[in-house]
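A note from the maintainers: we've had questions about how concatenated examples are separated. There is no special marker in the raw files; a new sequence line simply starts the next protein. For clarity in this README we add a label.
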Amino acid sequence: MKGIELSEKFYNECGAPMIKNEFPELEGVIAVGLVGAGSECFGFDDDISRDHDFEPGFCMFIPGEDVIDSRTEFRLERAYAKLPKTFEGFERLKINPVGGNRHGVIRTADFYEAKTGSTTGEMTVAQWLSIPETYLSEATNGKVFRDDYGWFSAIREKLLNMPDDVRYKKLAGNLLLMAQAGQYNYSRCLSHGETAAAQLAAGEFVNNALAAAFRLNKKYMPFYKWSFRALSQLEKLSEFATPLEILLTTGNTPELAVRKQGIIDEICLAVIEELKAQNLTESKNADIASHAYSVNERVKDPSLRNEHILTAV
Protein backbone atom coordinates (compact mmCIF):
# COMPACT_ATOMS: atom_id res chain seq x y z
CA MET A 1 0.00 0.00 0.00
CA LYS A 2 1.36 3.41 -1.02
CA GLY A 3 1.75 6.10 1.61
CA ILE A 4 -1.03 8.27 0.22
CA GLU A 5 -3.44 5.31 0.24
CA LEU A 6 -2.39 4.42 3.79
CA SER A 7 -2.84 8.02 4.89
CA GLU A 8 -6.29 8.38 3.37
CA LYS A 9 -7.45 5.08 4.84
CA PHE A 10 -6.11 6.05 8.27
CA TYR A 11 -7.94 9.37 8.04
CA ASN A 12 -11.21 7.80 6.87
CA GLU A 13 -11.22 5.07 9.51
CA CYS A 14 -9.67 6.90 12.47
CA GLY A 15 -9.24 10.61 11.80
CA ALA A 16 -12.63 11.51 10.39
CA PRO A 17 -14.55 9.90 13.30
CA MET A 18 -12.23 11.65 15.78
CA ILE A 19 -12.93 15.06 14.24
CA LYS A 20 -16.66 14.40 13.95
CA ASN A 21 -17.06 13.13 17.52
CA GLU A 22 -14.65 15.40 19.38
CA PHE A 23 -14.54 18.57 17.25
CA PRO A 24 -17.83 18.70 15.32
CA GLU A 25 -17.71 22.50 15.24
CA LEU A 26 -14.44 22.33 13.28
CA GLU A 27 -15.50 19.88 10.57
CA GLY A 28 -16.10 22.64 8.07
CA VAL A 29 -12.78 24.44 8.60
CA ILE A 30 -10.14 21.68 8.68
CA ALA A 31 -8.49 20.67 5.39
CA VAL A 32 -7.11 17.14 5.51
CA GLY A 33 -4.60 15.47 3.22
CA LEU A 34 -1.05 14.29 2.72
CA VAL A 35 1.07 17.09 1.25
CA GLY A 36 4.68 18.19 1.66
CA ALA A 37 8.12 16.62 2.03
CA GLY A 38 8.75 12.90 1.65
CA SER A 39 8.57 10.36 -1.15
CA GLU A 40 5.11 9.22 -0.02
CA CYS A 41 3.71 12.66 -0.82
CA PHE A 42 4.81 12.17 -4.44
CA GLY A 43 3.71 8.55 -4.63
CA PHE A 44 7.35 7.44 -4.96
CA ASP A 45 7.64 5.50 -1.69
CA ASP A 46 8.72 1.86 -1.69
CA ASP A 47 10.07 -0.72 0.76
CA ILE A 48 13.48 0.98 0.87
CA SER A 49 12.15 4.49 1.51
CA ARG A 50 10.06 3.26 4.44
CA ASP A 51 13.14 3.00 6.66
CA HIS A 52 12.53 6.56 7.91
CA ASP A 53 9.68 9.06 8.36
CA PHE A 54 7.04 6.61 7.08
CA GLU A 55 3.87 6.06 9.07
CA PRO A 56 0.10 6.03 9.00
CA GLY A 57 -0.50 9.76 9.31
CA PHE A 58 -2.21 12.72 7.73
CA CYS A 59 -2.09 16.50 7.85
CA MET A 60 -4.85 18.66 9.30
CA PHE A 61 -4.42 22.14 7.87
CA ILE A 62 -6.21 24.75 9.94
CA PRO A 63 -6.85 28.49 9.46
CA GLY A 64 -5.57 31.29 11.68
CA GLU A 65 -6.31 31.96 15.34
CA ASP A 66 -9.28 34.11 14.41
CA VAL A 67 -10.99 30.81 13.48
CA ILE A 68 -9.19 28.17 15.60
CA ASP A 69 -7.40 29.48 18.69
CA SER A 70 -4.15 28.03 20.03
CA ARG A 71 -5.89 26.14 22.84
CA THR A 72 -8.15 24.33 20.38
CA GLU A 73 -5.14 23.67 18.17
CA PHE A 74 -3.39 22.00 21.11
CA ARG A 75 -6.45 19.89 21.92
CA LEU A 76 -6.72 18.81 18.30
CA GLU A 77 -3.05 17.81 18.23
CA ARG A 78 -3.47 15.83 21.45
CA ALA A 79 -6.47 14.01 19.99
CA TYR A 80 -4.47 13.22 16.85
CA ALA A 81 -1.64 11.82 18.99
CA LYS A 82 -4.10 9.48 20.73
CA LEU A 83 -5.19 7.79 17.50
CA PRO A 84 -4.18 4.10 17.17
CA LYS A 85 -0.41 3.55 17.47
CA THR A 86 -0.45 0.95 14.71
CA PHE A 87 -2.54 0.75 11.55
CA GLU A 88 -2.46 -1.77 8.70
CA GLY A 89 0.71 -3.24 10.19
CA PHE A 90 2.59 0.07 10.29
CA GLU A 91 3.64 1.86 13.47
CA ARG A 92 3.08 5.55 13.93
CA LEU A 93 6.00 7.84 14.69
CA LYS A 94 6.33 9.64 17.98
CA ILE A 95 4.91 13.14 17.68
CA ASN A 96 5.59 16.29 19.61
CA PRO A 97 2.25 17.24 21.25
CA VAL A 98 2.74 20.85 20.18
CA GLY A 99 3.43 20.04 16.53
CA GLY A 100 6.58 20.27 14.46
CA ASN A 101 5.98 17.01 12.61
CA ARG A 102 5.26 16.39 8.92
CA HIS A 103 1.80 15.21 9.97
CA GLY A 104 -0.77 16.33 12.50
CA VAL A 105 -2.05 19.87 12.98
CA ILE A 106 -0.44 22.51 10.77
CA ARG A 107 -1.48 26.10 10.30
CA THR A 108 -2.20 26.62 6.60
CA ALA A 109 -0.37 29.95 6.56
CA ASP A 110 2.67 28.43 8.28
CA PHE A 111 2.82 25.55 5.78
CA TYR A 112 2.75 27.76 2.71
CA GLU A 113 5.06 30.39 4.17
CA ALA A 114 7.67 27.71 4.95
CA LYS A 115 7.51 26.44 1.35
CA THR A 116 7.15 29.67 -0.60
CA GLY A 117 7.59 32.66 1.70
CA SER A 118 3.96 33.60 1.07
CA THR A 119 1.02 32.81 3.35
CA THR A 120 -1.57 33.45 0.63
CA GLY A 121 -0.06 32.23 -2.62
CA GLU A 122 0.13 35.81 -3.88
CA MET A 123 3.68 36.55 -5.04
CA THR A 124 5.58 39.08 -7.07
CA VAL A 125 7.56 38.10 -10.15
CA ALA A 126 10.74 38.42 -8.10
CA GLN A 127 9.37 35.98 -5.54
CA TRP A 128 8.35 33.49 -8.21
CA LEU A 129 11.84 33.68 -9.68
CA SER A 130 13.56 33.12 -6.35
CA ILE A 131 11.65 30.08 -5.01
CA PRO A 132 13.37 26.73 -5.67
CA GLU A 133 10.88 24.62 -7.58
CA THR A 134 11.49 21.68 -5.28
CA TYR A 135 9.62 23.71 -2.65
CA LEU A 136 6.82 24.53 -5.06
CA SER A 137 6.52 20.82 -5.81
CA GLU A 138 6.29 20.05 -2.08
CA ALA A 139 3.64 22.74 -1.61
CA THR A 140 1.42 21.29 -4.34
CA ASN A 141 2.01 17.53 -4.32
CA GLY A 142 0.13 14.70 -2.60
CA LYS A 143 -3.62 14.64 -2.21
CA VAL A 144 -6.18 16.72 -0.34
CA PHE A 145 -8.82 14.40 1.12
CA ARG A 146 -11.23 17.13 2.18
CA ASP A 147 -11.31 20.92 2.33
CA ASP A 148 -14.76 22.25 3.15
CA TYR A 149 -13.34 25.63 4.10
CA GLY A 150 -11.57 25.93 0.73
CA TRP A 151 -8.70 28.16 1.84
CA PHE A 152 -5.95 25.55 1.66
CA SER A 153 -7.03 24.44 -1.82
CA ALA A 154 -7.40 28.02 -3.06
CA ILE A 155 -3.78 28.80 -2.18
CA ARG A 156 -2.70 25.48 -3.66
CA GLU A 157 -4.42 26.35 -6.93
CA LYS A 158 -2.59 29.69 -7.12
CA LEU A 159 0.76 27.97 -6.64
CA LEU A 160 -0.01 25.32 -9.26
CA ASN A 161 -0.28 28.08 -11.85
CA MET A 162 3.12 29.68 -12.30
CA PRO A 163 2.71 32.94 -14.28
CA ASP A 164 3.44 32.42 -17.97
CA ASP A 165 6.06 35.17 -18.01
CA VAL A 166 8.03 33.43 -15.28
CA ARG A 167 7.70 30.03 -16.94
CA TYR A 168 8.80 31.39 -20.31
CA LYS A 169 11.80 33.18 -18.81
CA LYS A 170 12.90 30.03 -16.99
CA LEU A 171 12.30 27.87 -20.07
CA ALA A 172 14.31 30.22 -22.26
CA GLY A 173 17.26 29.93 -19.89
CA ASN A 174 17.04 26.14 -19.83
CA LEU A 175 16.97 25.99 -23.63
CA LEU A 176 20.02 28.20 -23.96
CA LEU A 177 21.96 26.09 -21.46
CA MET A 178 20.92 22.94 -23.33
CA ALA A 179 22.43 24.47 -26.46
CA GLN A 180 25.63 25.56 -24.75
CA ALA A 181 26.22 22.31 -22.90
CA GLY A 182 24.89 19.76 -25.37
CA GLN A 183 25.04 21.13 -28.87
CA TYR A 184 28.32 22.98 -28.38
CA ASN A 185 30.46 22.17 -25.34
CA TYR A 186 30.05 18.39 -25.15
CA SER A 187 31.81 17.67 -28.43
CA ARG A 188 34.20 20.61 -27.98
CA CYS A 189 35.43 19.23 -24.64
CA LEU A 190 36.02 15.85 -26.25
CA SER A 191 37.99 17.53 -29.05
CA HIS A 192 40.32 18.84 -26.35
CA GLY A 193 40.60 15.35 -24.83
CA GLU A 194 38.81 16.52 -21.67
CA THR A 195 36.49 13.63 -20.98
CA ALA A 196 35.64 14.74 -17.45
CA ALA A 197 34.62 18.17 -18.71
CA ALA A 198 32.59 16.50 -21.45
CA GLN A 199 30.73 14.47 -18.84
CA LEU A 200 30.03 17.65 -16.88
CA ALA A 201 28.64 19.17 -20.08
CA ALA A 202 26.44 16.11 -20.56
CA GLY A 203 25.22 16.47 -16.98
CA GLU A 204 24.45 20.16 -17.48
CA PHE A 205 22.52 19.29 -20.61
CA VAL A 206 20.55 16.62 -18.73
CA ASN A 207 19.67 18.97 -15.85
CA ASN A 208 18.31 21.60 -18.21
CA ALA A 209 16.55 19.14 -20.49
CA LEU A 210 14.77 17.78 -17.41
CA ALA A 211 13.77 21.29 -16.35
CA ALA A 212 12.56 22.12 -19.88
CA ALA A 213 10.44 18.98 -19.99
CA PHE A 214 8.73 19.86 -16.71
CA ARG A 215 8.13 23.45 -17.80
CA LEU A 216 6.60 22.30 -21.09
CA ASN A 217 4.25 20.10 -19.04
CA LYS A 218 3.51 22.98 -16.62
CA LYS A 219 4.74 20.83 -13.74
CA TYR A 220 7.28 21.42 -10.97
CA MET A 221 10.35 19.22 -10.94
CA PRO A 222 10.80 17.58 -7.52
CA PHE A 223 14.01 16.99 -5.57
CA TYR A 224 16.71 15.69 -7.92
CA LYS A 225 16.65 12.10 -6.69
CA TRP A 226 13.01 11.81 -7.83
CA SER A 227 13.34 13.80 -11.06
CA PHE A 228 13.69 10.81 -13.39
CA ARG A 229 10.80 8.97 -11.78
CA ALA A 230 8.65 12.07 -12.09
CA LEU A 231 9.78 12.59 -15.69
CA SER A 232 8.55 9.12 -16.65
CA GLN A 233 5.05 10.12 -15.50
CA LEU A 234 4.78 13.32 -17.54
CA GLU A 235 2.21 13.51 -20.31
CA LYS A 236 4.72 14.99 -22.77
CA LEU A 237 8.39 14.14 -23.35
CA SER A 238 8.40 11.27 -20.84
CA GLU A 239 10.34 9.28 -23.44
CA PHE A 240 13.37 11.38 -22.44
CA ALA A 241 13.93 9.24 -19.34
CA THR A 242 16.03 6.46 -20.89
CA PRO A 243 18.07 8.63 -23.31
CA LEU A 244 18.90 11.12 -20.55
CA GLU A 245 19.96 8.27 -18.28
CA ILE A 246 22.30 7.02 -21.00
CA LEU A 247 23.93 10.46 -21.18
CA LEU A 248 24.60 10.38 -17.44
CA THR A 249 25.67 6.78 -16.98
CA THR A 250 27.88 5.96 -19.96
CA GLY A 251 31.47 6.88 -20.72
CA ASN A 252 32.92 9.01 -23.49
CA THR A 253 34.85 6.65 -25.74
CA PRO A 254 34.77 7.71 -29.41
CA GLU A 255 31.96 5.25 -30.15
CA LEU A 256 29.89 6.28 -27.15
CA ALA A 257 30.54 9.95 -27.83
CA VAL A 258 28.99 9.63 -31.28
CA ARG A 259 25.97 7.89 -29.79
CA LYS A 260 25.61 10.47 -27.03
CA GLN A 261 25.84 13.40 -29.41
CA GLY A 262 23.10 11.77 -31.45
CA ILE A 263 20.94 11.47 -28.33
CA ILE A 264 21.52 15.13 -27.52
CA ASP A 265 20.50 16.15 -31.03
CA GLU A 266 17.39 13.95 -30.93
CA ILE A 267 16.30 15.41 -27.60
CA CYS A 268 16.83 18.96 -28.84
CA LEU A 269 14.75 18.15 -31.92
CA ALA A 270 11.94 16.70 -29.78
CA VAL A 271 11.95 19.80 -27.55
CA ILE A 272 11.83 22.08 -30.60
CA GLU A 273 8.85 20.15 -31.97
CA GLU A 274 7.05 20.53 -28.64
CA LEU A 275 7.83 24.25 -28.57
CA LYS A 276 6.27 24.55 -32.02
CA ALA A 277 3.24 22.50 -30.95
CA GLN A 278 2.69 24.94 -28.08
CA ASN A 279 3.28 27.99 -30.31
CA LEU A 280 6.21 29.12 -28.18
CA THR A 281 8.76 29.62 -30.93
CA GLU A 282 8.98 31.15 -34.38
CA SER A 283 12.54 30.05 -35.11
CA LYS A 284 13.09 27.61 -37.98
CA ASN A 285 16.62 26.63 -36.95
CA ALA A 286 17.88 23.31 -35.60
CA ASP A 287 20.05 25.22 -33.11
CA ILE A 288 17.99 25.20 -29.92
CA ALA A 289 19.63 28.45 -28.81
CA SER A 290 17.62 30.33 -31.43
CA HIS A 291 14.44 28.90 -29.93
CA ALA A 292 15.56 30.05 -26.49
CA TYR A 293 15.57 33.64 -27.68
CA SER A 294 12.24 33.15 -29.44
CA VAL A 295 10.67 31.87 -26.20
CA ASN A 296 12.16 34.83 -24.34
CA GLU A 297 10.27 37.12 -26.72
CA ARG A 298 7.02 35.59 -25.43
CA VAL A 299 7.58 37.30 -22.05
CA LYS A 300 5.07 40.16 -21.96
CA ASP A 301 6.59 42.15 -19.10
CA PRO A 302 9.25 44.26 -20.85
CA SER A 303 11.43 44.61 -17.76
CA LEU A 304 11.58 40.83 -17.31
CA ARG A 305 11.92 40.16 -21.02
CA ASN A 306 14.89 42.50 -21.23
CA GLU A 307 16.68 40.88 -18.30
CA HIS A 308 19.55 38.56 -19.24
CA ILE A 309 18.14 35.39 -20.74
CA LEU A 310 19.75 33.31 -17.99
CA THR A 311 18.50 35.47 -15.16
CA ALA A 312 15.80 32.97 -14.11
CA VAL A 313 17.98 29.86 -14.08
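[label: protein 2]
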Amino acid sequence: MALTRRQKEVMDFLSNFIANKGYSPSYEEIASGLGLASLATVHKHIQALEAKQYLRRSYNHSRSLEVAERFVTEEQSRRPESSPPSIPLLGRIAAGSPVEAIADPEALHFSDFAKHEDTFALEVRGESMIEDHICSGDYVLAERTDSVKNGDIVVALINGSEATLKRYYQEPDGRVRLQPANAAMDPIFVDPASLNIQGRVLAVMRKY
Protein backbone atom coordinates (compact mmCIF):
# COMPACT_ATOMS: atom_id res chain seq x y z
CA MET A 1 0.00 0.00 0.00
CA ALA A 2 1.24 3.46 -0.89
CA LEU A 3 1.86 6.19 1.63
CA THR A 4 -0.72 8.88 2.20
CA ARG A 5 0.42 12.48 1.96
CA ARG A 6 0.54 12.81 5.76
CA GLN A 7 2.36 9.50 6.18
CA LYS A 8 4.95 10.65 3.64
CA GLU A 9 5.47 13.82 5.70
CA VAL A 10 6.00 11.73 8.83
CA MET A 11 8.52 9.50 7.06
CA ASP A 12 10.39 12.49 5.61
CA PHE A 13 10.56 14.08 9.07
CA LEU A 14 11.83 10.86 10.65
CA SER A 15 14.38 10.24 7.93
CA ASN A 16 15.78 13.80 8.06
CA PHE A 17 15.81 13.87 11.87
CA ILE A 18 17.74 10.58 12.11
CA ALA A 19 20.17 11.64 9.35
CA ASN A 20 20.91 14.96 11.07
CA LYS A 21 21.03 13.86 14.72
CA GLY A 22 21.96 10.19 14.56
CA TYR A 23 19.00 9.04 16.67
CA SER A 24 15.25 8.86 16.25
CA PRO A 25 12.87 11.56 17.50
CA SER A 26 10.51 11.16 20.40
CA TYR A 27 6.77 11.21 19.82
CA GLU A 28 6.71 14.71 21.32
CA GLU A 29 9.32 15.89 18.80
CA ILE A 30 7.37 14.33 15.93
CA ALA A 31 4.16 16.04 17.05
CA SER A 32 5.95 19.38 17.42
CA GLY A 33 7.85 19.09 14.16
CA LEU A 34 4.75 18.25 12.11
CA GLY A 35 2.20 20.35 13.99
CA LEU A 36 0.15 17.33 15.05
CA ALA A 37 -2.54 17.87 17.67
CA SER A 38 -1.76 14.98 20.00
CA LEU A 39 0.57 12.10 20.77
CA ALA A 40 -2.31 9.75 19.98
CA THR A 41 -2.24 10.99 16.38
CA VAL A 42 1.50 10.36 16.22
CA HIS A 43 1.00 6.85 17.62
CA LYS A 44 -1.67 6.17 14.98
CA HIS A 45 0.67 7.19 12.15
CA ILE A 46 3.52 5.11 13.56
CA GLN A 47 1.31 2.02 13.76
CA ALA A 48 0.12 2.49 10.17
CA LEU A 49 3.67 2.99 8.87
CA GLU A 50 4.88 -0.07 10.72
CA ALA A 51 2.04 -2.14 9.24
CA LYS A 52 3.06 -0.95 5.75
CA GLN A 53 6.69 -1.93 6.51
CA TYR A 54 8.07 1.58 6.12
CA LEU A 55 9.06 1.77 9.77
CA ARG A 56 10.45 -0.52 12.49
CA ARG A 57 10.19 -0.18 16.26
CA SER A 58 12.14 -1.72 19.14
CA TYR A 59 9.62 -1.94 21.94
CA ASN A 60 12.14 -2.13 24.80
CA HIS A 61 14.09 1.01 23.86
CA SER A 62 13.33 4.72 23.93
CA ARG A 63 13.73 6.60 20.66
CA SER A 64 13.40 3.23 18.95
CA LEU A 65 12.06 4.21 15.52
CA GLU A 66 14.04 3.06 12.47
CA VAL A 67 13.41 3.82 8.80
CA ALA A 68 12.88 0.50 7.03
CA GLU A 69 14.57 -0.58 3.81
CA ARG A 70 11.33 -0.23 1.85
CA PHE A 71 11.21 3.54 2.35
CA VAL A 72 14.90 3.95 1.49
CA THR A 73 14.49 1.93 -1.71
CA GLU A 74 11.42 3.85 -2.84
CA GLU A 75 13.08 7.21 -2.18
CA GLN A 76 16.10 6.21 -4.24
CA SER A 77 13.87 5.11 -7.13
CA ARG A 78 12.15 8.54 -7.17
CA ARG A 79 15.39 10.41 -7.69
CA PRO A 80 16.19 11.03 -11.36
CA GLU A 81 19.47 9.58 -12.54
CA SER A 82 22.10 12.26 -12.90
CA SER A 83 23.66 12.76 -16.29
CA PRO A 84 26.91 14.52 -17.13
CA PRO A 85 26.66 18.13 -18.34
CA SER A 86 26.24 18.43 -22.07
CA ILE A 87 26.72 21.17 -24.63
CA PRO A 88 24.62 21.35 -27.80
CA LEU A 89 26.50 20.49 -30.99
CA LEU A 90 25.10 23.14 -33.33
CA GLY A 91 26.76 22.03 -36.53
CA ARG A 92 30.01 22.09 -38.51
CA ILE A 93 32.09 25.19 -39.13
CA ALA A 94 34.56 25.92 -41.87
CA ALA A 95 38.21 26.44 -41.12
CA GLY A 96 38.84 27.00 -44.83
CA SER A 97 36.47 28.81 -47.15
CA PRO A 98 33.20 29.86 -45.52
CA VAL A 99 30.43 27.26 -45.74
CA GLU A 100 26.84 27.19 -44.60
CA ALA A 101 26.51 26.32 -40.90
CA ILE A 102 23.70 23.81 -40.37
CA ALA A 103 22.22 23.01 -36.94
CA ASP A 104 22.77 19.45 -35.76
CA PRO A 105 20.55 17.84 -33.07
CA GLU A 106 23.44 16.27 -31.15
CA ALA A 107 25.13 16.98 -27.84
CA LEU A 108 28.68 16.71 -26.60
CA HIS A 109 29.44 16.07 -22.95
CA PHE A 110 32.09 18.35 -21.48
CA SER A 111 31.69 18.23 -17.71
CA ASP A 112 34.83 20.33 -17.17
CA PHE A 113 33.75 23.12 -19.53
CA ALA A 114 29.95 23.26 -19.38
CA LYS A 115 29.80 25.90 -16.69
CA HIS A 116 27.54 28.38 -18.48
CA GLU A 117 24.39 28.00 -20.55
CA ASP A 118 25.86 30.24 -23.29
CA THR A 119 28.62 27.74 -24.08
CA PHE A 120 28.24 25.71 -27.29
CA ALA A 121 30.35 23.37 -29.43
CA LEU A 122 31.22 23.23 -33.11
CA GLU A 123 33.08 20.64 -35.11
CA VAL A 124 35.88 22.12 -37.26
CA ARG A 125 36.14 21.33 -40.97
CA GLY A 126 39.18 22.51 -42.95
CA GLU A 127 42.80 23.47 -42.36
CA SER A 128 42.80 27.26 -42.11
CA MET A 129 43.52 27.31 -38.34
CA ILE A 130 46.19 24.61 -38.17
CA GLU A 131 48.95 27.00 -37.07
CA ASP A 132 46.82 27.68 -33.98
CA HIS A 133 46.68 23.89 -33.51
CA ILE A 134 43.02 23.72 -34.52
CA CYS A 135 42.69 20.90 -36.99
CA SER A 136 39.89 19.48 -39.10
CA GLY A 137 37.82 17.15 -36.92
CA ASP A 138 38.56 19.03 -33.69
CA TYR A 139 35.77 20.47 -31.57
CA VAL A 140 35.88 24.08 -30.42
CA LEU A 141 34.00 25.31 -27.37
CA ALA A 142 32.75 28.86 -27.69
CA GLU A 143 30.75 31.32 -25.62
CA ARG A 144 27.97 33.32 -27.23
CA THR A 145 29.07 36.95 -27.42
CA ASP A 146 29.27 39.78 -29.91
CA SER A 147 31.92 41.60 -27.89
CA VAL A 148 35.37 40.58 -29.08
CA LYS A 149 38.78 42.18 -29.42
CA ASN A 150 41.57 42.01 -31.96
CA GLY A 151 43.26 38.63 -31.98
CA ASP A 152 40.32 36.65 -30.58
CA ILE A 153 39.40 33.46 -32.41
CA VAL A 154 35.76 33.97 -33.32
CA VAL A 155 32.79 32.19 -34.81
CA ALA A 156 31.88 34.61 -37.57
CA LEU A 157 28.70 34.55 -39.65
CA ILE A 158 29.09 36.27 -43.03
CA ASN A 159 26.05 37.56 -44.94
CA GLY A 160 23.75 35.71 -42.58
CA SER A 161 24.54 32.24 -43.94
CA GLU A 162 28.27 31.52 -44.15
CA ALA A 163 30.05 30.64 -40.89
CA THR A 164 33.80 30.48 -40.43
CA LEU A 165 36.37 30.21 -37.68
CA LYS A 166 39.09 32.88 -37.83
CA ARG A 167 41.04 35.41 -35.80
CA TYR A 168 39.28 38.78 -35.64
CA TYR A 169 40.98 42.09 -36.46
CA GLN A 170 39.54 45.57 -37.11
CA GLU A 171 41.26 47.28 -40.04
CA PRO A 172 42.01 51.06 -40.24
CA ASP A 173 39.69 51.39 -43.26
CA GLY A 174 36.70 50.14 -41.20
CA ARG A 175 36.61 46.64 -42.57
CA VAL A 176 37.07 43.50 -40.47
CA ARG A 177 39.86 41.08 -41.30
CA LEU A 178 39.18 37.43 -40.59
CA GLN A 179 42.66 36.01 -40.44
CA PRO A 180 43.38 32.31 -40.98
CA ALA A 181 46.18 30.62 -39.07
CA ASN A 182 47.60 29.06 -42.20
CA ALA A 183 50.30 30.84 -44.20
CA ALA A 184 49.02 29.27 -47.42
CA MET A 185 45.60 30.96 -47.10
CA ASP A 186 44.53 34.57 -47.59
CA PRO A 187 42.55 36.57 -45.04
CA ILE A 188 38.89 37.40 -45.58
CA PHE A 189 37.97 41.11 -45.52
CA VAL A 190 34.37 41.83 -44.54
CA ASP A 191 32.20 44.91 -44.19
CA PRO A 192 30.99 45.03 -40.55
CA ALA A 193 27.40 45.37 -41.78
CA SER A 194 27.55 41.90 -43.31
CA LEU A 195 29.31 40.31 -40.33
CA ASN A 196 27.72 38.80 -37.23
CA ILE A 197 30.01 37.54 -34.47
CA GLN A 198 28.36 34.43 -33.01
CA GLY A 199 30.90 33.68 -30.30
CA ARG A 200 34.46 33.60 -29.04
CA VAL A 201 36.44 30.37 -28.80
CA LEU A 202 37.22 29.18 -25.28
CA ALA A 203 38.88 25.81 -25.85
CA VAL A 204 39.71 23.14 -28.38
CA MET A 205 38.88 19.46 -27.86
CA ARG A 206 40.49 16.72 -29.90
CA LYS A 207 39.34 13.12 -29.99
CA TYR A 208 41.96 10.56 -30.98
